Amino acid sequence: MTTIAERFAAVTAELRAAEIAVGRATGCVRLLAVSKTKPAADVAAAYRWGQRHFGENYLQEALIKQQALSAFAISWHFIGPIQSNKTKPIAQHFAWVHSVDRLKIAERLSEQRPDYLPPLNVCLQVNISGEASKSGVALAELPALVEQVAKLPRLRLRGVMAIPEPQSDYAAQCQPYRSLCSAVQALNLPGLDTLSYGMSGDLRAAVAEGSTLVRIGTALFGERSSLR
Is the predicted pLDDT of residue 133 greater than 90, yes or no? Predict the structure, then answer.
């Protein structure tokens, strides 16, 4: 049976190869381990091999794992849809939020971020493929939302996140990421340093088109459990 250590080594090697293939600096793309539905023991195993950033979709599940792993110096990222009644615990217990898609949510996160914690790192989710089933701000509306969120006092706007419609063709995978990267560059805001996109199936395309953070789950932890 393949171990987490072996998967971690394989994923890291693939990521480094993707960077080299397009002439990017080794290590410039961060790995976010998506640990949703996985037990705290799996997170601890990946941590022992050097992984420090973990992404969770489900709030209650994440809070249980955070308590169990409180002795570990983990940077927790919330990457799932955000309901208004969940913003307070998210603001209190995470270092990053990748799925901010409207001003109301950003305002609540800012208001509810404790003063004793550093500003909450946030990315704005962009619905880059225009899918009705997905959350996210339209690309044309991104500049206005950036301007509004950047003014909120307890947030640090870091960049954007996107999950485009799946494509098997490499060129088709590259196109939405290229459009999003260009749009972020056009904003010309130095603080926007994070392009959170790319998963196992389109990692090479994401790295080629400027991703600074890729989200990997199954390739690192194995098939997901249905247990929540």
Answer: no
